[in-house]
Design goal:
Elements (H helix, E strand, L loop, with lengths): L4 E6 L5 E7 L2 E8 L9 H12 L8 E5 L5 H18 L3 E4 L1 H7 L8 E9 L2 E4 L2 E2 L8 E2 L4 E3 L1 H7 L4 E4 L2 H4 L1 H4 L5 E4 L8 H13 L18 H10 L17
Parallel strand pairs: 1-4, 4-5, 6-11, 11-12
Antiparallel strand pairs: 1-2, 2-3, 6-7, 7-10, 8-9
Length: about 250
């Protein structure tokens, strides 16, 4: 069969998934939100999904992995697993930004901006703005990922915008105060390995893959441990994205 066969991992939230995609089609996907951590089930699920799809390692052209932002622990576990698999199999590793993949879940949106939102904890969300795709249907990123309070995000939106992602369920009442905002149910737009795989296939076909040893998660803001250490040293500095509102690009 022609086309790139991609194994993709998504562990940016508590609900992780693994998928196999080829030619823009989903071959198999496993999703779960168990009580155990990603590390205790990830590699076993990879083996299971490959067996279920009848796929051998010699057929896989690349591995896609969600880079973040998201759960610090989940991202580290997912990336470590993807790096190990890519190095062992001798195949390319493609890092996909989590919000890019989440925006792809809104591929049916045509007349509004798209703003995927992840719960960043500490009364903040991770967000970015996208224009709906025109020719190929893939959303077009308009600005960098930012960690911002849901209130500031709501105030900054001044034109019709679809908000989608896990944070919608958490801050629905806040977002609903802005009439420009249309909320997409969190159950309809959630980080999935399917979307990571679709983007990874396009990126790999364009030569956009990285050295598995050098690739790193995209945290957007400092971790709790880093913030605690900075406080002790008296050098706590907010990340460049934390206090900046979403840029209003057309």
């Amino acid at each position: 069969m022609d086309g790139l066969l991609i194994l993709s991992l998504e562990t940016s939230t508590g609900c992780g998934s693994i998928a196999l995609t080829r030619n823009g089609r989903l071959l198999a996907e496993a999703t779960a939100q168990p009580e155990v951590t990603h590390s205790r089930r990830l590699l076993g699920t990879v083996s299971w999904i490959m067996q279920a799809a009848g796929v051998d390692w010699s057929e896989i052209n690349g591995i896609g992995v969600s880079l973040g932002p998201g759960s610090f622990t989940g991202l580290r576990i997912g990336l470590a697993a993807a790096q190990g698999l890519a190095l062992a199999a001798g195949i390319p590793l493609v890092g996909v930004e989590t919000l890019d993949a989440l925006a792809l879940a809104c591929i049916g949106v045509r007349e509004e901006r798209i703003c995927p939102v992840l719960d960043a904890r500490k009364q903040e969300v991770y967000a970015a703005l996208y224009k709906p795709g025109e020719r190929n249907g893939y959303p077009v990123r308009q600005n960098d990922d930012q960690a911002v309070s849901p209130e500031k995000l709501t105030e900054a939106i001044d034109r019709p915008t679809v908000l989608a992602g896990p944070a919608v369920a958490v801050y629905r009442e806040v977002f609903a105060k802005n009439s420009f905002i249309r909320l997409l149910s969190a159950s309809l737009a959630h980080p999935r390995a399917l979307y990571v795989g679709l983007l990874a296939e396009r990126m790999l076909a364009s030569g956009l893959w990285l050295d598995p040893v050098l690739i790193s998660p995209k945290y957007v803001r400092a971790s709790e441990a880093e913030m605690t250490l900075q406080k002790k040293k008296g050098k706590l500095v907010q990340g460049p994205e934390t206090d900046k509102l979403l840029e209003r690009k057309s």
